[in-house]
């Protein structure tokens, strides 16, 4: 099978490298040789082992020998238009482009089905971790109920540096960028948008109906301070950025926010650029996925797994079970009960106490006028009422939406 690659950046370069180095095992597993026929990129790569670069998309579209194209350009433009035209031309497309899948996945999957080809996106969530395919194959017999995931390597790396080394946010971000983990614009990582897109993809696949990432409440880690990290540590916990989604009777919940996880929580020990995803199903219980969530070769490995899968299926459409969304399907996350953390300045007021609340204080003169609370389980509406009521006399310094055992 001849393939095309669109975008020869970190991931595209990794795909080229893996095809060259693992040619034998790829052939053994897919049943035929996979060769790169054309690579689309506007830049020049005079030192590459590949000599098939083009700057013109039509060269890939009109090459009748190319059956599968790896779209690893990122962004929605021009990737959306290119992907549509390729699928309509009867070519399968595999991608790491979570932005495109989260935005246009429903339409692109429909187009793939209509043209009896594939649109596969294992690399869009969790980098090298197999998580997308298990949802529509190995776990397909289960009624899934919840997914909790550390889905962004950059923010996990930053938080780990803050927790373990007391590093500043800026120092840690620089390290992530130097290692090629961060998005071009780190806002997408830091403010949770990347996690949000991945959460939307997981929710759409796990529960069968499209969830729009723009509608998922999303909070990143830019408001997390070393003080919050210290209060969490006193509570025997760590702070992680989580994407979560849960099925309810009349729809699904989904949200992205920093979470305070007790050290015994299965996701608490997942550090650095690693991602971890916990999938819960009725009867199945909990299943954990763990591995490198970013970087050239882990992500390329997932892209290639999709290429091999589509070659093995002789290009025939593989059903993922993801259908159109519906108004009202995504439920108001503020009605989902959970525990909340909030940190306050006392300004000389008596410390707070309340039934079911954990009150955390830190040693040291700089913390003498501060405290933090972890509420009992309640809805966000109820917690907001407390902040406006009995807690209103304290100065709110920070609030974290989710505390989990
Ligand atoms: N910027 C992303 C991350 C890359 O840090 O996880 C992988 O999707």
Automatic annotation (TrEMBL):
Amino-acid biosynthesis is among the record's keywords: yes
Main EC class the enzyme belongs to: oxidoreductase
Its EC number(s): 1.1.1.3
MF (Gene Ontology): homoserine dehydrogenase activity; NADP binding
Positions contributing to NADP(+) binding: 6-13
Domain Aspartate/homoserine dehydrogenase NAD-binding: 7-122
Matches recorded under SUPFAM superfamilies: Glyceraldehyde-3-phosphate dehydrogenase-like, C-terminal domain, NAD(P)-binding Rossmann-fold domains
GO biological process: methionine biosynthetic process; threonine biosynthetic process
Keywords carried by this UniProt record: Amino-acid biosynthesis, Methionine biosynthesis, NADP, Oxidoreductase, Sodium, Threonine biosynthesis
Residues the entry annotates as binding NADPH: 98
Catalytic activity entry: L-homoserine + NADP(+) = L-aspartate 4-semialdehyde + NADPH + H(+)
Gene3D superfamilies noted in UniProt: 3.30.70.260, Dihydrodipicolinate Reductase, domain 2 (3.30.360.10), NAD(P)-binding Rossmann-like Domain (3.40.50.720)
Stored NCBIfam families: PRK06349.1
Name of the molecule in the record: Homoserine dehydrogenase
Organism taxonomic ancestry: Bacteria, Bacillati, Bacillota, Clostridia, Monoglobales
